[in-house]
Amino acid sequence: MRLFGCVCGQFHSSGAGMGMSADRVAVPIPFYVVDHPEGVAVFDCGLHRDLVHADDPYRRRLRTQDMDVSLSPEETVTRALERLDIDPAAVRFAVLSHLHFDHTGGLSELPNATIVVQAREWQAGRDDDLSARYFLPRRFFDLGHSLLQIDGEHDLFGDGAVTILPSFGHTPGHQSMHVRSDDGDHILVADACYNCETARTRRFPAHFDSPAMNKSLDALTARCGPETLMIYGHDPDQWGDQPILSSSRS
Q1: What phi and psi values does residue 61 have, to the nearest 5 degrees?
Q2: CA 100 distance to own-chain centroid
Q3: How far, in Å, CA of 152 to CA of 74, rounded?
Q4: How many other C-beta atoms lie within 10 A of the C-beta of residue 244?
C-alpha cells in the first residue's frame, strides 16, 4: 500500500484566520492518495479546477472576505493523480474530511468515486441554515456521486490499514484518517488542527468550536505511538517545494 501527499493550490488569508502568528500567510491545500490493493482512495480532493482563473465567481467572493486561493493547471487533482499513474476515473473512494470548498473541489474530476462522509456533516451540508453558517457550498460536493454516510469510526477497507476517525469541531461532522502501512504510521489530521503552531498553543480561530476541537485533537493525539506522524491541515512547515511528496517517513 502506498500513501502520497499532494498539494492542490494555496490558500491566502490573515495569519489569525489560520491560527498563526504571522500577519498574512499562504498555506498549502493538500489532499492524500491511498493506493490500496482493494482500490484507490483519496482523502480530500483540493480545489475545483475552475479556481485556476482569478475571475472565477467563487474567488471573487473570497476576496470580499479578505481571502483568496491560487491554483495552477499542474496542481489540479487530475494532474496529481496522472503523475502517480492513477486514472482519476478509477478512484474508488473520496473520503471527505469535511465539506469546505478547498477539500471538496476536485470531486468533479472523480466521476466514479463513492463519497465517504460523516452523516452529520452531509446533513449539515444539505441544510440551508447550517450550510450557510459553516460555509459548506453545495456547488462543490453535491454532484450526484454515490454516497456512504458513516457514523463515527470506520474501517475503510476492512483490514485496519485505513481508519476514519470522527474529529468534530471545525465543522459539525469533521473527520480525520489514520493510515497504517509498511511505510509508517500516519494520522491525517485535516482541519481538526491547521498546523503545528496551533497544536502547541491550542489557540483555534475564534469562529470555530474550540472546546470540541480541543477534545478531538486530544483523541487524535492519544492514538499516536512513538513513530506516528501527524500531518496537519494547512501547515507550510510540513511541505517542501515539490507539488507531490511521498509522506512515507519523509
Answers
A1: -65, -40
A2: 9
A3: 35
A4: 15
Cell numbers at 65, concatenated: 472576505
With 60 as the cut, is the pLDDT of residue 242 above it?
A: no
* H or E stretch covering 67: none
pLDDT of 250 strictly over 80: no
Helices (H) and strands (E) in the chain, counts: 8, 13
pLDDT tens digits for range 50-103: 999 999 999 999 999 999 999 999 999 999 999 999 999 999 999 999 999 999
- The DSSP call for residue 55 is T
Q: Count of residues for the chain?
A: 250
Question: Exposure string (b/e) for 156-165, b if CB count within 10 Å is 16 or more?
Answer: bbeeebbbbb
Amino acid at 101: F
| Strand pairing report for 24-36 and 2-14 | antiparallel
Average pLDDT, the chain: 93
Q: How far apart are CA 185 and CA 65, in angstroms?
A: 38
What does the alpha-carbon distance between residue 130 and residue 150 come to, in Å, rounded to a whole number? 19
Phi, psi of 137 (to 5 degrees): -75, 120
Cell of 165: 476517525
Indicate the fold that domain 2-239 takes in CATH. Metallo-beta-lactamase; Chain A (3.60.15)
